[in-house]
Design a protein that fits this description.
By secondary structure, this protein is an alpha+beta fold. It is built from seven helices and 23 strands. The chain starts with about 30 loop residues before the first helix and ends with a strand. The relative contact order is 0.05.
């Protein structure tokens, strides 16, 4: 039975194409002690010895690849290897020249000259001395950009100055301001970090933007505290500047000293807008300049003339000044006595202060009625809404308050002939 096994290369018989090889003579003792000659490697038209290359340039020269299951050295010496079909095969050799090293393909002299011409390594001092601040500008200039020109294809709406985007904290909602971070402590609990959160900048329209210019710096987020500068945005004192002097009811209510007259008023904390010292000074200076241009005496010129039926001011009434622009807000929330009433509802009032300041040309809309406590004397300045058309004779009548309801803003007044009338706070005014 014929075996289909392939004969191993070591036991293959020489064919007619292959020539018989003789065993090499055994080397002598002196020849064995001598070092083997270096292998010759050929590159192009020049040839170097592997020993010289390995010693001078640190290259590793490999020999022929050993074949599996046979003696590659014997195959190399014979110049051919036996195959299954009896055909000869050239010995397989590995090239020791890397393909991506063009310098090694040159001659010895050219290679040494190329190595000598290589620049020396840059020292750390030379590296630090190289300017890298304008590296990006130099790249832009090489692309055709010039100073003051917008970057990008859209030159009309493009950015002239570079910007830096503000990273949004994780899970932060749209339009929400970031809060101070919490850091873990040694006990495992988390406490508020010392670094305050930043305030997102706004554009000219008041919209929040999430980027800053190179020269712009983020401001620390303002926190409502005693001594902070504020602007009242809603409520009775809307539009007034002031300073927080006291926080009450877990910071839900603030006692504010108004910048216009120094009065202390209570304001809901939600109605306050925190200002920086620079913003506060700029707004105060703008209001002061406006007050100088429009003094109190000229207030009547900008006020329309009221009809007699709409005028409620009368001499010897105790009123409150509610104008925030009269004399720059200096007399805001101050009580005064009406000295005289001019045509059109313009009054001359005497302010109840240490100087007893006399203000002329005060319009009616700058004044508000005052309601005394129980048993106080009042004068009916408007007919109550429920009695209009039926009791117009009540207008100007004196009376005495016998009950007062602040929640409903109503008072019970005893007028002449012991008649009792229910009036609103705006229908009566205290007598000075």
């Amino acid at each position: 039975m014929q075996s289909d096994r392939r004969p191993s290369p070591s036991k293959a018989k020489p064919t007619a194409a292959s020539s018989p090889t003789k065993a090499p003579p055994s080397p002598s003792r002196d020849a064995a002690a001598a070092p083997p000659p270096p292998e010759t490697v050929v590159y192009g038209e020049s040839e170097f010895t592997g020993g010289d290359i390995a010693g001078k340039y640190g290259l590793l020269v490999k020999g022929t690849k050993r074949r599996r299951g046979g003696d590659a050295t014997a195959a190399t010496e014979s110049g051919a290897a036996a195959t299954k079909d009896g055909d000869s095969e050239e010995p397989y050799e590995i090239s020791t020249a890397p393909r991506d090293a063009p310098l090694l393909t040159k001659g010895r002299g050219e290679l040494e000259e190329a190595i000598q011409d290589l620049p020396e390594h840059c020292s750390m001092e030379d590296y630090e001395a190289k300017p890298i601040a304008d590296f990006g500008v130099a790249m832009l200039r090489s692309m055709g950009w010039s100073e003051g020109q917008a970057i990008g294809r859209n030159q009309k709406n493009g950015l002239v100055k570079p910007i830096q985007y503000i990273p949004r904290p994780s899970l932060l909602g749209l339009g929400a301001q970031p809060t101070p971070d919490y850091v873990p402590t040694a006990s495992g609990k988390r406490r508020r970090a010392d670094a305050p959160a930043y305030e997102l900048p706004t554009d000219a329209n008041g919209k929040v933007r999430h980027y800053v210019t190179v020269d712009e710096k983020l401001e620390a987020r303002r926190v409502l505290a005693v001594g902070g500068y504020i602007l009242v945005t809603h409520g009775r004192h809307a539009g007034m500047l002031g300073v927080v002097r006291e926080l009450m009811h877990h910071k839900e209510l603030a006692r504010v000293e108004l910048a216009a007259n120094g009065d202390l008023v209570k304001v809901d904390a939600r109605d306050l807008k925190l200002l920086s010292p620079a913003e506060y000074d700029a707004e105060a200076a703008k209001r002061e300049a406006k007050a100088k241009q429009h003094p109190a005496a000229s207030s009547s010129s900008s006020t329309s003339i009221l009809s007699p039926g709409d005028i409620w001011v009368r001499p010897n009434l105790r009123v409150r000044i509610v104008s925030k622009s009269l004399a720059g807000g200096k007399y805001y929330e101050r009580k005064a006595r009406i000295v005289d009433v001019l045509p059109g509802g313009v009054s001359v009032v005497e302010v109840e202060d240490s100087r007893r300041s006399l203000l002329e040309g005060v319009p009616q809309k700058a004044l508000e009625t005052t309601v005394p406590s129980i048993d106080g004397l009042v004068r009916v300045v408007r007919v109550p809404r429920k009695l209009r058309g039926d009791r117009d004779d009540l207008l100007g009548v004196r009376g005495q308050i016998i009950d007062k309801d602040k929640k409903r803003e109503e008072v019970v007044v005893r007028v002449e002939d012991d008649e009792v009338v229910v009036c609103g706070f705006d229908d009566v005014c205290a007598i000075a």
